[in-house]
Amino acid sequence: MSHVDDWRQAALATYIAAGAALAVAGYTAATTAANAHALHGQVERIEDYQQEQTAITESTISAASVRRGTLPPDTRPYIAPDWPGLAERVMPSVVALAGIEKPYGLAENNHAWRIPGVQQNAATALLTRVLAWHRDWAKMDAERGQRIICGGVAVEGNKVLTVAHCVEGQEGLRVRTAGGEWREARVIGADISRDVALVEIEGDSLPPIPVAGLMPRQGQDVMAIGSPGGYGFAVGVGIVAWYGRDSSMLSPDEFMLVTASIIGGNSGGVVVNTRGEAVSLVSYGYDLYTQTVPINRALAIADTLAGQFKQNVGGLQTGSFKVQVRPKAVVLRRGSST
Amino acid sequence: MANANVTGRAAPGLLKYQITVGASLAAFFLASFLLVFSYLKNAELLTDGDRVGTSLERLGLIDNQNGAQHEPR
Q: Looking at the domain that runs over A65-92+209-298, which CATH code has it been given?
């Protein structure tokens, strides 16, 4: 074969290979650039939305407005807090929620794919596979273990009330009862944008917590029980700091801000007044302040979740849940009535 | 063939192939750059996008839905 023929063959081979490489690279670059653009657009959308919502909130705020809860104020005679006695009385209704996070896998559970405009195709599948190999997600998935992540409280029968972000992203759930017993648990439903979830536990019912029909007044004492840093059944005390509309983390709604300090793990924990009645659920924190979901709203959402769950399973008896494929938990969409 | 090297004047044909190989290699470099760029952008999407997607759901700006699958559209 002549020298020229060698060059001709080499040119042909590199020409074809380069064309193929450019086509593949162009396809992946176009996909990822479009995804980056969609992501950027949604970041701006969130910023605009929060600015708009903040303006709405600030336009309605006054000293009088932040004193009002979503229920009538508690004007009953003041009971001085007996924190040790209160903790003892409330604790049997409290649980610590433990979970195993969903695996990284090939990013199937990544929320990025839910962003409008973000596309998945062969290019993202290939790039994600390389990323999984590069970051050794398989090893991280293999090392996952159960850990206590949140708090919760028994409200009726085997039903436990907690917040949605505690159960979201968890592959398996168990609860640790105040008596030190592990129980299997499953999600009946979760309303992500209102941060309420209803969980059903196996075994005997726990004593339901009494629920306040009145909201503590601004400045009244409250106690939060949760699992800060995984330390289940820990208590923290504070006062009611504020009532009002908030939209910084969740869809705009009425909240109760308390000063009972929290760190990661308190979420889902119950907040009680000095009579031991549930007044709210811990949702998220602002430094020293903790935003909580008023109990009446949490229970109303839980009722909706339980109702939708019953519809989903088509009248199956509760006892059959254990042996069948798990019925799909209800996830409320925005605009669902509570 | 016109470029047969019987007279010692094969340069025009050879140059054509050499240019093609050179251009192809340049295209390879460009493709490699694009792939690395795409890889980094996809990694950024999975990190920042997870946070943004979660925020959108929590703020009620998108419906919750089950985890999407890798399927060609």
A: 2.40.10.10
